[in-house]
Design brief:
Elements lengths: L5 E5 L4 E2 L16 H11 L2 H11 L7 E5 L4 E5 L1 H11 L8 H10 L7 E6 L2 H14 L6 H15 L5 H12 L3 H19 L16 H7 L3 H7 L14 H12 L13 H11 L2 H8 L4 H6 L4 H22 L10 H26 L1
Length: about 350
């Protein structure tokens, strides 16, 4: 190991949880150690981890990544493991899930009094590693956690650079593409605006633990939606002139629930693709804004021919894939004959409809 990193075993009492961990929602930032543990008990399956460590002991290969602070050490990577060990040794740190914790203590005997740690010279060195591991590596964070991490990395480490240059530096560090980094950072800026607006009146069910950040990241990859929100990637401050009225509409379409607990729009690729087309057509956007179903509004965009063509091409590709492996099979699934009849029936029906339209136009 390089001399700038130290491998040591530390007592749980010498280690502090990171109150600015990207996995913590904004509402939990800079809370006490006990409050963070209570939150993690609800959100991060600590009971199961406590049980595993309590039964098997602490695996030496799972070192915590820490930096030295005024009093002890702060854990930058490994907060769930630290919280679990702290609770195994001192269950009074928690104010909730008391019965479950007591049950874990009753069923286990291991109480690690020291934890393997790697001491880094500063947080920046750890963040280089975390960026690769959690953004592009094998232990990925949720999208909102990625957004918060990249945004804070940009603010804390590359604030003096233009966004595009900062993104290039960050991308090199984490092994990603700069365009992706830019979209995620700007997406988090958009999310912060939504959060600052109290989730536009949906706080009873929408917050920083239930928000689907990928909806933003995927939307900002679509030209019409980006223009609708007035996010300008060519600007030094892409969200400086964001259209908050349209952002409110976008948020309501994707997150506001009706009496049947259903949103107007799903956040999957197909629905966002339809929304992008709808926004690009004034008549379709007005109809959708007035309450027309997304599929019906999409029909007004006159892009159905592209959807039809894509569906046919995709069907051909999948059938060609099936044809390439059929000779290698020894047994066929029970409903194959019925499915082949359905395929034949659909192709005849599509051909008949197409011929009827051709005759009508002629």
């Amino acid at each position: 190991m390089s001399e700038k990193y130290k491998y040591v075993w530390l007592k749980p009492s010498e280690l502090s949880l990171d109150s600015e961990n990207p996995r913590l929602p904004r509402s939990m930032r800079n809370k006490s150690q006990s409050e963070i543990i209570d939150f993690m008990l609800l959100e991060h399956s600590l009971i199961e981890l406590m049980l595993a460590i309590g039964q098997n002991g602490y695996f030496p290969g799972e070192q915590l990544l820490v930096v030295e602070i005024e009093k002890g050490y702060k854990v930058i990577e490994g907060n769930r493991r630290l919280a679990s060990v702290k609770l195994l040794n001192n269950p009074e740190l928690a104010t909730r899930n008391k019965l479950k914790i007591a049950q874990v203590l009753e069923e286990t005997s291991e109480r690690p009094n020291k934890i393997p740690c790697i001491v880094f010279p500063n947080e920046k060195e750890i963040h280089k590693y975390l960026g690769f591991r959690h953004i592009t590596g094998t232990k990925e964070w949720r999208m909102l956690e990625k957004g918060r991490y990249l945004y804070e990395l940009r603010v804390n480490e590359y604030n003096g650079l233009p966004l595009i240059e900062a993104a290039k530096q960050i991308a090199k560090t984490i092994g990603s593409k700069s365009n992706y980094v830019i979209r995620v950072i700007v997406g988090f800026e958009v999310y912060k605006i939504i959060e600052d607006n109290q989730f536009f009146g949906m706080k009873e069910y929408l917050n920083d633990t239930t928000f689907y950040f990928n909806y933003i990241a995927d939307s900002l990859n679509k030209e019409n939606i980006t223009s609708f929100l007035n996010v300008n990637f060519d600007s030094i401050k892409p969200t400086e002139n964001i259209n908050e009225s349209n952002l409110k509409l976008w948020t309501e379409w994707l997150f506001k629930r009706n009496d049947q607990n259903v949103t107007r729009l799903k956040g999957d690729s197909e629905n966002l693709k339809m929304l992008n087309a709808i926004i690009g057509k004034e008549e379709a956007l007005k109809a959708f804004s007035d309450g027309l179903d997304v599929a019906k509004a999409f029909e007004l965009t006159e892009e159905l021919d592209l959807i039809f063509q894509d569906a046919i091409k995709e069907s051909i590709n999948r059938l060609e894939q099936a044809d390439s492996v059929v000779h290698k099979l020894n047994h066929f699934y029970t409903d194959l004959e019925d499915d082949l009849k359905t395929i034949r029936s659909l192709t005849v029906k599509i051909k008949s409809t197409k011929d009827s339209i051709d005759e009508r136009e002629f």
